[in-house]
Amino acid sequence: MDLDVSFAYTEGMTEAEVERHLRETPHGVLSLADGGDAYAVPVFHHYEDGALYFRLGESPDSRKAAYIEATETATYVVYEVAATDDPDAQRGWSVLARGPVREVPAGDPAYDAVTINERFAPIRIFDEALEEVELTLYELSIEELAGRTN
């Protein structure tokens, strides 16, 4: 290893710190896979009682839906880096949650529009007609959870 390369030591977070970041940072990147093909998408989340929820808008040919269906274990990443003028003084943290993702049944009380609007930022629609977008709620059952900070 080249010892002239700059390194920053990190340390693990406590469970309380990890949960605080999941509650206070409402967005991250959901990583999915279909065999050897990966797909990552920025999403908003809601964290409650040890579970992560994602509200996604899906059109008839939704790539997200296809990848979620094919994914056995998803990874969700929440992170933040504070920009500084001095790269050696840069501070940040990251949280990784891993586990299976399942669709929450449509009859679940979490599907109530008031509840969804309280828990999530407005849904982002990209080049789709609103009437073609179906709202789907997913839960990531956390099997692994870790956080690092420096």
TrEMBL record:
Record-linked InterPro entries: Pyridox_Oxase-rel, Split_barrel_FMN-bd
Gene3D superfamilies: Electron Transport, Fmn-binding Protein, Chain A
Name of protein: Pyridoxamine 5'-phosphate oxidase family protein
Species this chain originates from: Haloarcula limicola
